[in-house]
């Protein structure tokens, strides 16, 4: 298994896209995997799911399981497959179940406030 570590992310984290705050959470998780940059996973309850549209894209990670993807719908554009979730993650990363992570870009910001 890859060296995956999950811990509670310190402080309050937000996701912004298209001028809107999509998520704000004190309960975000930080997942560290090997040499990759840490990824913040937001509890689904802290996300404005109305802005997200589940896509038919999926991927498989041997360590985490099968990922489902979501597109973000903003006023001006649709950001395809900009977020992902492991609905039924492998046991060793079960803490990320019910959480979504977001790809950061020039249109999506994930930041600690």
Automatic annotation (TrEMBL):
Source species of the chain: Roseovarius aestuarii
Any matching Pfam family: NTP_transf_9
- Per its record, how is this protein called by name? DUF427 domain-containing protein
Q: Which InterPro entries does its entry note?
A: DUF427, DUF427_sf
Q: Where is the DUF427 domain?
A: 14-104
Instruction: Classify the source by domain of life.
Output: Bacteria
């Amino acid at each position: 298994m890859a060296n995956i570590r999950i811990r509670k992310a310190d402080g309050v984290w937000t996701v912004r896209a298209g001028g809107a705050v999509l998520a704000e959470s004190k309960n975000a998780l930080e997942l560290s995997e090997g040499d990759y940059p840490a990824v913040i996973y937001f509890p689904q309850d802290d996300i404005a799911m109305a802005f997200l549209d589940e896509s038919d894209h999926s991927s498989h990670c041997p360590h985490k399981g099968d990922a489902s993807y979501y597109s973000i719908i903003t006023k001006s554009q649709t950001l395809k497959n900009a977020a992902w979730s492991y609905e039924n993650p492998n046991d060793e990363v079960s803490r990320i179940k019910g959480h979504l992570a977001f790809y950061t870009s020039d249109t999506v910001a994930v930041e600690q406030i």
